[in-house]
Amino acid sequence: SFTDVSLAAKVGWTTYGVLDPDESDPSVCQPGEPPLLCEYRVLSPSVALIMFGTNDVGVIGADDYRVNLRRIVRLTEGKGIIPILSTIPMRDGFATRVQEFNRIVAEIAAEYAVPMVDYGGAMLPLGMDGLDLDGVHPSVPPKGYEGAADFNPNNLYYGYVIRNLTSLQILDAVWRSTAG
After folding, report:
1. Inter-residue contact 155 to 139 (CB < 8 Å)
2. Which residues pair with 142 in a beta bridge?
3. pLDDT band for position 114 (50/70/90)?
4. Beta partners for 175?
5. What is the pLDDT of residues 82-92, one digit of tens each?
6. Which residue of 19, 51, 69, 82 sits 20 to 30 Å from the alpha carbon of 62, by its own alpha carbon?
7. Which residues contact 129 (CB under 8 A, 6 or more apart)?
């Protein structure tokens, strides 16, 4: 799953993009089907890791972000899928907005009683808050993206590695809480 090409997660996407049927891949998705629901139909997942906001902070307000994230959670639960929300990492020039959006993520996770991973918080102790030189994307380990699932101690200083590690940790916690 670390290398899957998603129908609902693309570079630069926002909460409104994943809900917009015009953004769907017409070769896979049904007419009028938003990318989020297309992905769910095609993959039939039991759990969905949901992290949107890094690109939203520069283009929409907190109220719109809240509405969109709630809709994503409701649509996910409506398909019988466990949503796992994730906070977003810091972004250069948007520290206050990132904090506000992360509060919204935590509020919605509590409101819907769904799991949440604090990826943004896990990134803070890393150099440059775990970001690459562009100040937007997570830092990449020495072996590139292929090394982003290498959890040896020397690799735990890179944002993509921490993203994958925290994702696996929350998936394990959810699995343990639902097993049996």
Report:
1. no
2. none
3. very high
4. none
5. 999 999 999 99
6. 82
7. 89, 90, 123
The closest alpha carbon to 164, from 143, 146, 142, belongs to 146
Which residue shows structure tokens 């139909």? 41
Q: And the tokens for 64?
A: 């719109």
β-pairing verdict for 47-50 and 82-86: parallel
- Nearest one of 143, 146, 149, 144 to 161, comparing CA atoms: 149
The structure's pTM equals 0.94
Structure tokens of 25?
């891949």
pLDDT digits (tens, 9 = 90+) for 18-62: 999 999 999 999 999 999 999 999 999 999 999 999 999 999 999
Q: Distance between CA 92 and CA 90 in Å, rounded?
A: 7
Cα distances from 73 to residues 5, 35, 36, 131, in angstroms, run 21, 14, 11, 27
The answer on pLDDT for 9 being more than 90 is no
